[in-house]
Write a structure and sequence with these properties.
This is FMN-dependent NADH-azoreductase. It catalyses: N,N-dimethyl-1,4-phenylenediamine + anthranilate + 2 NAD(+) = 2-(4-dimethylaminophenyl)diazenylbenzoate + 2 NADH + 2 H(+). Keywords: Flavoprotein, FMN, NAD, Oxidoreductase. Its EC number is 1.7.1.17. With 258 residues, this protein is α/β, with parallel strands linked by helices. The protein is built from 8 helices and 7 strands. Strand 6, helix 7 and strand 7 form a beta-alpha-beta unit. Helix 2 runs parallel beside helix 8. It binds flavin mononucleotide. The site of flavin mononucleotide has 17 residues, from helix 2.
Length: 258
């Protein structure tokens, strides 16, 4: 909580700088960012999301294991098979978060962004942030978001955290207001497909789960407040057959809600 508080205070400062340097903002939802003109592609505001019910775009952030022993892999595959039967025209775009070419967000990106928002842009800053902006554009182009992720050390695998560090950007995906941060990527449902060796719904275990509560908080910050969850729990102890049944049951329930 303290960390989020610090982050919110810092973003309040950045958002004020964004507001001051708003010279060209055209996109309604992204108005207060000085480097909005660098945005490309299809950016959907809340009003545009799910306008064309027949050709929705589903973005799948996949950080499952790569083979057929991955429980979150089985979970997402089962989900999308069922989903496709109901909505054959919807497009599913997958980003494999293990892709080694995905941006590694680092201090040079932070420095470029800080210079741009404070009006002290240097040569190369805009280019340095292009990959971040592309990732955010892709996020905005989705009508629905699915994240599949195993639990690693009570939290999320680092590749998912890295993605989050790229796309959680003040002025672009959330904005500071007098009433606190306001998410900008609104109107989209989020489905979490997670898995853990233990069962974190059990008394005495709940407080150790820093994965799902974290994902809910951080994605709510940028606007995803409608969250569904398929939880494949206790994979280190439960029988495979039972886990598969659990997946089929959760999928058939969630696919109708999503
Ligand atoms: C690096 C690593 C860390 C893990 N940490 C935890 C953990 O903290 N708690 C837990 O219950 N399971 C943990 N696990 C087990 C996985 O969460 C579990 O096997 C899960 O079902 C894996 O999903 P997957 O098959 O989709 O990769 C860990 C596994 C790995 C590889």
């Amino acid at each position: 909580m303290q960390l989020l508080y610090k982050m919110a205070s810092r973003s309040a400062w950045i958002a004020r700088r964004f507001a001051k340097s708003n010279l060209h903002g055209k996109q309604k939802v992204l108005r207060s960012c000085s480097y909005v003109p660098a945005f490309r592609g299809e950016v959907k505001s809340q009003g545009d999301v799910r306008k064309n019910e027949h050709a929705l775009q589903i973005l799948h952030l996949n950080c499952s294991g790569s083979d057929d022993r991955s429980w979150t892999g089985i979970g997402s595959e089962t989900f999308f098979k069922s989903y496709k039967k109901i909505y054959p025209h919807h497009k599913i775009k997958e980003i494999n978060l293990w892709d080694k070419d995905l941006l590694k967000y680092n201090l040079s990106h932070v420095a470029s962004k800080m210079r741009m928002v404070s009006g002290e842009e240097q040569a190369g800053d805009k280019e340095n942030l292009t990959a971040v902006e592309d990732m955010i554009t892709t996020l905005y182009s989705a009508d629905k978001l699915v994240i599949s992720s195993p639990m690693w050390n009570y939290g999320v695998p680092y590749v998912l955290k890295q993605y989050i560090d790229c796309i959680v950007q003040p002025g672009l995906t959330f904005q500071e207001t007098q009433n606190g941060p306001r998410g900008l990527v609104t109107g989209r449902p989020l489905l979490l497909i997670t898995s853990s060796g233990g069962d974190y719904t059990k008394p005495g275990m709940v407080h150790l789960d820093f994965q799902v509560p974290y994902l809910k908080v951080i994605f709510a910050l940028i606007g995803f407040t409608n969250v569904r969850h398929i939880y494949i729990k206790n994979t280190s102890h439960d029988k495979r057959e039972h886990l598969l049944q659990l997946i089929y049951k959760s999928v058939s329930h969630e696919v109708k809600q999503f």
